[in-house]
Amino acid sequence: MSRTRLSTVVFDAPDAHELADFYMRLLGYVLRAEEPDWVLIGPPFEGTALAFETEPLYTPPVWPAGPGDQRMMLHLDIEVDDLAEETARALAEGAKLADHQPQEDVRVFFDPAGHPFCLWVHTRQSRRKRRTPQ
């Protein structure tokens, strides 16, 4: 049987380079490849990469979404050791804290292009049931 693995998650954005820079700072990823409208970043060693493609007609999702709103298609869950410290760092890097926060061990943010992402800390409760933005 041939090997199959997830290699990259691709995000549309109004500016691929700007959004890639944000995630490189946030995650400690490095630049792997770039073109004028496309950027690939990833962990310094092996791991799933993130790519960003400039899409001039990009519309950011609304979260939580209401009827007729542009809904998110996916979001990143980023596990952290210290939620308060990493929340402050994410805000300093340019993330925006969402108004609605669904649980104590998770913080929902929007990246500079408006994609939701979560920082979460591993707790007993999160092991049992990990709720994510709906």
Characterization of the model:
It is globular, with a radius of gyration of 15 Å. The protein has helices spanning 16-27, 83-93, 124-128; strands spanning 8-13, 30-35, 38-42, 49-54, 76-80, 96-97, 106-110, 116-121. The longest helix has 12 residues, at 16-27. Strands 1-4-3-2 form a 4-stranded mixed sheet, with helices on one face. It has a 4-stranded mixed sheet with strand order 5-8-7-6, with helices on one face. It has 2 domains: 7-56, Signal recognition particle alu RNA binding heterodimer, srp9/1, CATH 3.30.720; 74-134, Roll (2,3-Dihydroxybiphenyl 1,2-Dioxygenase, domain 1), CATH 3.10.180.10. The model has no long low-confidence stretch (mean pLDDT 90). The protein is built from 3 helices and 8 strands. With 134 residues, it is an alpha/beta fold. A hairpin with a 6-residue loop joins strand 3 (38-42) and strand 4. It holds the Pfam family Glyoxalase_6.
